[in-house]
């Protein structure tokens, strides 16, 4: 069942429809960054990603009055973005063909990781060991650890990054993600698991060996970071 | 419950959606199996860190363009 409209959504919608600019600005600020991150999973062109997000906001503005609240406001907006992205990015045929493979990208290193529905791949041959004295909660306080995560996110297959953004970073319900991305529940589980396993593995390497994985292409500084300014 | 089954349920556990019939077995396994408990804790920590990942700031001119579209469409009152 899709996510029901949240009570705070109803209030927010009333304000947005009434022309409450402050409410709209707050909505844009809260979602725009993630929308851009999601748009970039559909295109390698930063300019096209910007266009996708811009068109999404225009469609949101035009659709606010007609939005019926069958899903949450956020889910609706992410859905608009994915549809726009698919349309606008369709020209990038070669790239699109590559990312349409829903799972099991060739050469993906999943040794030692479990794959849902496919049994284990050497389950616990390399047993996960605790991260020593590192308090897992302290990870989120560490800018370097966040850098590790940002880099591994940048380097992972688009299909995995997409579900990670929607599920783990934006907390969109799994059923809604299946609808938005047109993937099965099983496929979503596989993609999510692989994505999370990649992040865990990168953090594991970093915490044990100090290894900071580099992202694909040009190194990307953390957004809004004071460093690398 | 063995490790295969436990790992199979970890995504549900992270989402707080463990099937009712599997919850007790899962919790017992986590209490007894160090590697599985470690793996789950690390995946959970990674997920929490993901949620804290900062996003790129929105350039002022882009925000203004979006807000201008909103004003036109919704007849919004000015600030």
UniProtKB/TrEMBL annotation, chain A:
GO MF terms held by the record: DNA binding; sigma factor activity
Question: InterPro entries from the entry?
Answer: RNA_pol_sigma-70-like (IPR039425), RNA_pol_sigma-70_dom (IPR014284), RNA_pol_sigma70_r2 (IPR007627), RNA_pol_sigma70_r4_t2 (IPR013249), RNA_pol_sigma_r2 (IPR013325), RNA_pol_sigma_r3/r4-like (IPR013324), WH-like_DNA-bd_sf (IPR036388)
Q: Where is this region: Disordered?
A: 210-229
User: Start and end of every RNA polymerase sigma factor 70 region 4 type domain?
Assistant: 149-198
**Biological process per Gene Ontology, one example term:** DNA-templated transcription initiation
Keywords in UniProt for this one? Sigma factor, Transcription, Transcription regulation
One Pfam family linked to the record: Sigma70_r2
Describe the family membership recorded for this protein in Swiss-Prot or TrEMBL.
Answer: Belongs to the sigma-70 factor family. ECF subfamily.
Question: NCBIfam families of this UniProt entry?
Answer: sigma70-ECF
Name the chain's protein: RNA polymerase sigma factor
Q: What is the lineage of its organism?
A: Bacteria, Candidatus Eiseniibacteriota
Automatic annotation (TrEMBL), chain B:
InterPro entries from the UniProt entry: Anti_sigma_zinc_sf, Znf_put
A Pfam family hit: zf-HC2
What Gene3D superfamilies is this protein classified in?
Answer: Anti-sigma factor, zinc-finger domain
Residue ranges constituting the Putative zinc-finger domain according to the UniProt record: 3-37
Name under which the protein is recorded: Putative zinc-finger domain-containing protein
Q: Which organism is it from?
A: Eiseniibacteriota bacterium
Q: What is the lineage of its organism?
A: Bacteria, Candidatus Eiseniibacteriota
